[in-house]
Amino acid sequence: MKPLYWIPLLPLLGFVLNGAVALASSSRRARRGEGGERLPYGERLFHGIVGVGSVGAATVLAFGALVPWSEQAFAGRALPVVETAFTWMFAGDFSVAVAFRLDALSALMLSFVTFVGTLIHLYSVGYMQEEEGYGRYFAFLNLFMFAMLTLVLGANLPVLFIGWEGVGLCSYLLIGYYYDKDFAAAAGKKAFVVNRVGDVGFVLGIFGVLALFGTTDFSFLEAAKQQVLSGSAPLSVYAVCLLLFLGACGKSAQVPLYVWLPDAMAGPTPVSALIHAATMVTAGVYLVARTSALFVLAPDALTLVAWVGAGTAVFAASIGLAQNDIKKVLAYSTVSQLGYMFLACGVGAFAAGMFHVFTHSFFKACLFLGSGSVIHALHHEQDMRKMGGLAPRLPQTFRTMLIATLAIAGIVPFAGFFSKDQILGSVAAGGHPALYVVGVATAAMTAFYMFRLIRMTFAGEFRGTHEQEHHLHESPATMTVPLWILAAGSVLSGFIWVPMGVSNLLPRFLAPALAEMPEHHMSHGAELGLMALSLGAALAGIALAVRWYTGRPAPEHAAHRPAEEIVVSPAAAAFCGKTGLLGALVKNKWNVDEGIEAGVLGPFRGIGRVLWKGVDALVIDGIANASAFLVELAGDLLRFFTTGNVRNYALGFTLGALVLVAYVLFF
Amino acid sequence: MSPATFDLLAAIAKIAVVWAITLAALLPNLVWMERRGAGLIQDRPGPNRVGPLGLFQALADVLKMFMKEDVTPLYVDKLLHTVAPAILLVPALTTFAVIPFGSSIPVLGREVKLVIADVNIGVLYVFALTSVGVYGLVLAGWASNNKYSLLGGLRSSAQIISYELSMGVSAVAVLVSAGSLRPSDVVAWQAANVWNCVPQVVGCIVFIVAAFAETNRVPFDLPEAEAELVAGYHTEYSAFKFGMFFMSEYANMIAASAMIVTLYFGGWSLPFVTFTGVWGGLLSMVVFWAKTLFFICVFIWVRWTLPRFRYDQLMNLGWKVLLPLSVLNLLVVAWIVATKGGA
Amino acid sequence: MSPLPGIAPMSVPPAAFLAAGTILFVIGLIGALLKRNALSIFLSIELMMNAVNLLFLTWGRMRGDASSHVIVFFVIAIAAAEAAVGLAVFVALFRARQTIEVDRVNLLKW
Amino acid sequence: MTGDLLLFAFSAGLAIAFALAMVVQKTPVRSVLALVVTFFGMAVLAVMLAAPFIAAIIVIVYAGAILVLFLFVIMLLNLNEEAREKETRPVQRALGLVAALALGGLLLGVTLRAPAPPVGTPSAGPRIPLLDEIPVIGRLLFSDYLFAFEAVAVLLLAAAVGALILSKRRMD
Fold first, then answer.
1. Is D6 in the C-facing interface, judged by CB distances under 8 Å?
2. Of A118, A128, A133, nearest to A10 (Cα)?
3. Using one digit for the tens of pLDDT, what is the confidence trace for B169-227?
4. Is B37 among the domain residues?
């Protein structure tokens, strides 16, 4: 078995190769004044092979490492494997090694990160082939895989943080992939800045862990399990947990730091699928699950996690109800599902949270890739009001997306049903009725907006232009094959944890890596009842969506009218009108961006203005100018010593030496 | 006899031997050799009137030099004009002080090493003298108050400084492999191991080429290029002073040959032969002077075979070919010595 | 023929060497202060440096310390660098002003 | 004993006399030559101070390279005589002479008063004794003084480049 560090190293190698070739190629094209068209076939082939190959090889390595390990784990004999590459830094008795750790949690993450990552790389080969920045895209995507794998495999918080910041950087780079478009550049910046807010918390949290346990290695979790704190730590566990959770909120787009994720859809769709749905955004959940031993020491912090999660879930779902951009719907759906995961963690069901991370990665990636396929077919049309009736034209896309939608809506026996049911079951069993109600309501909303998406996109008649209709085509195999694989995953991945003791693979596997929580057992009857309840909610949502969004007949002259004027569902519009202010707020995404602008950024601008005009211009510049003036004055007086005659200087030099020697000799 | 007196007497005797060989035997006959050699190469008789085969030609030339009127031009710097030839000649002759011209001879129960001063910085001493010799040329050129002479002086100073560098660097490689700056150690190392011209063939070639340049011999005789500079730095010299220039050229040639032999061709040693006893010592002297004579012949042969370099070619050869080659040679030698753990 | 130099006691009092070095230094200093030709000033400075070298060697000999030789080695190396740059400056100066009299080169003043 | 004293007197006297000649001499070429002789005298003094290697270096580098370079430049610029015009700064001249002599007196005081280690016991010093100079210097250069050695190497390279740039006729 190769050492673990080869797994992240391979994509890094891919990044270097792809980056070098892309750089050389783009500068050559810039010199020749070319640009705008697709790359020559040879270069595309190179980038495709290196990009997919490096990640694929990493996947093979990863499964080569984790399959034997998992076999051991199920046999109950596996201990976490920690491999130290080298010592990164040390000071006194503090030292940080670049070390990688394979345990149940990282094995689970590793499995779907590499698997989904490879599929999405493969998908990108087809999706991005018209792009001029093909090489740059694959370079960044490989770099992302490197960072994500470092994050997942890191054996201590600083190494995890490298990956954490690395994925943030790649996210920024890929959101701003269309950097010549203002909205994409702005979205990238927004993601970066909002993430920084969370990262401040994370960094302080790392320091807090260091202060509490004297180490940042994950061995501190063992200490935390035995509640061995290093005596008089100035920071409470609560504070540390809250700081870490702030970091998780930033990365995993929880209220109030979720605002960057919907905007992040400005990037290419496979990026949205990989980074902003399947892998990176789940890093926050991973962090909380990873440090679960710490969180259970601070129950109040956990409660906060639960409420933030539940609030995010319902809040984002409500926004998703009224979005018309296909990717935006999925984005809010992602935020909402991430809320579910935090909800699970918050009630102590870390395994359930990770289960949802796992299943979600499949169906959400499938959904995003499916939407990408639609967008690809429609030449970058993302507004669902201009779609419709695509089912017969894009049969593969339609079927796979339908499967994934059923999964996310929580219909038995698709994966989402099991994971969502685990979460809701844990919430109910843990005795949080309010949270449970929120969860079920969110499930109903999820089912509604997802089927709204399906109906608006695939049902009814086509509402786009005739030209678009003319060019409609199913996507190439490099795109549909990943879709089908992911759809299969959306069906199958739920069976690793089927309630009522049918299948217990996942919790048994994860148990050693997570904190132990007191288990609440429910009778099978209660469990079945709860299942029926959530299933019923989902079915109700689906039914409403199917009733409202028939899509037939298409509005008059839909092809020639701007999207804003197309009303796909008169019934929905009428309902929205009746709800009045609430409906308007939902439509405007609760005006959160505007609120932040007025409530946070405005005051900061004011403070900045005061600091600029008052402190900087007057005081600091004043000091600088005054000292400059003094120096100038002194120079004006002293410059007459500069006679311009070298011999004068030599004489002065000699006299000075004379004085010095005389001083040494006589005093 | 006290050791000090013995040492003194031995030193005087050695000086006498060396000067007898170089000044009395080699120097005058070299002129004859050169001119006869030129004749041979150019398919003409050469000097054949004075004595048998023209052997006394050198004597006649020397007499002529002494007898002619010593003309000192009007506007020269008299002091420097007079001193310059001496400055050139003295270093050429004193070089032999550190060159081992034989193994050793037992005298009165003691081994007398056949080298005048067996100092531990011998090689540096040679380089010091070579660098001082430049003054002779430069001053002769400057003191003559003649633009051709000045140009000759300028050229010689630039040329000698340039080539001394590659000469020094290739010699350093020899010193590194021998592990000493003492010429007798270098010879002893070669006698014990292998002549340096075999493993350090690059350095050897560089050194020989640079030695040609240092002695201002064709193809590096630009300082006195007759075609352009009349006669360069010695245009304004005549009679005895000119004779000194003449002598110093040949003395330099002998010294350079002796250095080449010492550093690269085993000095007085011969492969598979050990020199012991009085006769062995004398035989080693013969070997040394035979080798030296061979290189003198090479000097003469080259002079009458090759054309002169152009000035830019000269500089290019020195800085862009010889210097990098010698540095490369030094690096390789140093690397080998370092990996072998010291000589 | 003196034996290999090194451990033998000094037969000439070191003070004589020190005095000689200092006198040479002062002569160089006088030259540097009084000469007007930049080249001559430069020559005088070379003399001063070498006089200091002599002092170093004397003290090193008195202490039996080879570090002084290393320092002198460095001084000589630096003198070589200085000479190369200094002479290049003079050549450039001469090209610009047709003189290297330091009294005539005084543009750089208040 | 007396032989050494005589040798010292001769070479020191030679060095000082020609140093004076160097200062007094008006012709730059003769100044340079006088300095060459001075350096030879100093090289002999260095040999007497058990530094034959340094002596050889002084001759090779100072006399053989640096001063030849001086000569070269003098010839290149054709500097024959120092200008015979009157001293424009008599005060400066007088003051300089006085200051230099005063500094010389003081320095003599300093050097002669400096606490000297006992003469004749050179191995009493804390460092490596001067048994064989060249290996000792070599070892010191590549151990204790390695950084300085590398720095000097860089300095020489910089000087070479600088001289090249300075003496180019035009900057292009």
1. no
2. A118
3. 998 888 888 888 888 888 888 888 888 888 888 889 999 999 888 887 778 777 676 66
4. no
Say how far apart CA B251 and CA B257 lie, in whole Å. Answer: 10
CA angle centred on C54, ends C51 and C58, rounded to 5°: 145
In the A/D pair of chains, how many CB contacts fall below 8 A?
A: 30
Which residues are CB-neighbours of B20 under 8 A, at least 6 positions away? none
| Mean predicted confidence (pLDDT) in C77-89 | 90
Give C35: exposed, middle or buried? Use CB within 10 Å, 0-12, 13-18, 19+: buried
CA dihedral (B102, B107, B112, B117) positive or negative: negative
* CB proximity list for D62: less than 8 A, separation 6 or greater: C46, C50, C76, C79, D39
> Do chain A and chain B touch with ≥3 beta carbon pairs under 8 Å?
no
Q: Find out whether B141 and B152 touch, Cβ atoms under 8 Å.
A: yes
First-last CA distance in chain C? 61
- Asked if D157 reaches chain C (Cβ–Cβ under 8 Å), the answer is no
Domain count, chain B: 1
- Contact predicate B244/B234, CB 8 Å: no
CA distances from A388 to A393, A435, B110, C59 (A): 10, 36, 117, 98
> Cα(A380)–Cα(D70) distance, rounded to whole angstroms?
77
With vertex at residue B292, the alpha carbon angle to CA B110 and CA B59, rounded to the nearest 5 degrees, is: 105
Helix (H, G, I), strand (E, B) or coil at B270: strand
Nearest-CA neighbor of B205 among B124, B250, B160, B265?
B265
The alpha carbon of residue A662 is apart from the nearest alpha carbon of chain D, in Å, by 7
C61 in any annotated domain: yes
Nearest Cβ partner for D92 among A647, A657, A662: A647
CATH number of the domain bearing residue C61: 1.10.287.3510
Beta bridge partners, B169, equal none
A523-556 confidence digits (pLDDT tens): 888 888 888 998 999 999 999 988 888 776 777 7
Beta bridge partners of B110: B107
Alpha-helical runs (H) found in chain B: 3-19, 27-41, 57-67, 78-94, 122-143, 147-178, 183-192, 201-214, 226-229, 239-264, 277-303, 311-316, 323-339
Q: Is residue C31 in some structural domain? A: yes
Cβ contact A438:A339 at 8 Å: no
Domain span holding position B289: 63-340
- The amino acid occupying position A399 is R
Residues A348-361 pLDDT 10s:
889 999 999 999 99
How many domains does the structure of chain C reveal?
1
Q: Would you state the structure tokens that stand for residue A519, as one six-digit string? A: 């288990």
Exposed e or buried b for every residue in D56-78, given b needs 16+ CB within 10 A?
Answer: bbbbbbbbbbbbbbbbbbbbebe
CA-wise closest residue to D44 among D11, D9, D14, D67: D11
Closest residue in D to A647 (Cα) is D92
What are residue A84's DSSP bridge partners? Answer: A99
Q: What is the ipTM of this complex?
A: 0.76
Q: Is the peptide bond before B85 cis (omega within 30 degrees of 0)?
A: no
Write a three-state SS string for A166-208.
HHHHHHHHHHCCCCCCHHHHHHHHHHHHHHHHHHHHHHHHHHH
H/E segment holding residue A99: strand A94-102
CA pair distance A373, A475, nearest whole angstrom: 6
Whether omega for the bond prior to residue A413 falls within 30 degrees of 0, making it cis, is yes
In whole angstroms, give the CA distance from residue A547 to residue A541.
10
- Asked whether the beta carbons of residue D56 and residue B157 sit closer than 8 angstroms, the reply is no
When computed from its CA atoms, the radius of gyration of chain C, rounded to whole angstroms, is 18
Residue B317 DSSP one-character state: I
Of A242, A235, A249, the closest CA to residue A207 belongs to A235
